[in-house]
Amino acid sequence: MQTYDGFKEKELNYTSPFEIFYDWFEEAKTEEINDPDAMSLATVNDDGQPNVRMVLLKKIDHGFVFFSNKNSQKGIELNKNKSAAVCFHWKSIRKQVRIKGEVSIIAPIEADNYFDTRPRGSRIGAIVSKQSSVLSGPDQFSKEYSEFIESMEGKEIIRPDYWVGYRIIPNEIEFWLNSDFRLHQRLKFRLQDKSWTRDYLYP
Ligand SMILES: Cc1cc2nc3c(=O)[nH]c(=O)nc-3n(C[C@H](O)[C@H](O)[C@H](O)COP(=O)(O)O)c2cc1C
Asked: Is 103 one of the annotated binding-site residues?
């Protein structure tokens, strides 16, 4: 007799996918050993070549907010093509969430507020790292980091304008959950005329 772990009834009654996301994310926060807020972020370059890497989800409001360097590879790609996708996989609860949408840079004051909560060392790292640029060797970054720390002793560390927050406003959110015999379940929400429609998909 197979066990069948479907969506919970309350999840099926939610009208907004954000509500399911909140529930799953809370569950992931208690179950995942490391980084339940880690998500893969896909962007696309000028040649249509996708590029994917992990980032951390730092805020959920009407979108999903992460922080990065505007001059990094992802920053350059997002500047030209605002379409992006993110994917969470919470292994310990065997759930996946895929999100597609448009990305925009959050207000500077919001980024300042978050930047100021970070440890001094992380703020300095964000300033010194010319993210995605080529180093002259393995020690260059740590050398520059130490020099910067010395030069800033006793001084305030302010967010540089190239360190920004991005908000992905979703137009599709898909929830996947594991079931026995690969009878996995998929529930996909699409934003149409400002309201969410839902479809169940074959796994
Ligand atoms: C778990 C995890 C979380 C990460 N979080 C971030 C993040 O929030 N922001 C960021 O810029 N890079 C983050 N990184 C590093 C990126 O994956 C990536 O190496 C970096 O942003 C450069 O990517 P790019 O050259 O494609 O722009 C994280 C890496 C890992 C493994």
From this structure: no
Domains, in order of start, for the chain: 9-112+162-201 (2.30.110.10)
Kindly report the pTM of this predicted structure: 0.96
CA of 84 to the centre of ligand 1 (A): 15
| Residue 135 DSSP one-character state | P
In this prediction, residue 129 carries a pLDDT of 98
Mutate which of 56, 57, 106, 162 for ligand 1? The one with the most ligand atoms within 8 Å of its CB, which is 56
How distant, in Å, are the alpha carbons of 3, 10, 13, 158, 181 from that of 185? 13, 16, 16, 46, 11
Q: What distance in angstroms lies between residue 32's CA and the mean position of ligand 1's atoms?
A: 19
Q: Which residue has the tokens 């703020």?
A: 123
107 CB near ligand 1 (under 6 Å): no
- Per residue in 67-93, pLDDT tens? 999 999 999 999 999 999 999 999 999
Over the stretch 92-135, which tens digit does the pLDDT of each residue have? 999 999 999 999 999 999 999 999 999 999 999 999 999 999 99
- The span from the CA of 77 to the CA of 175, in Å, is 26
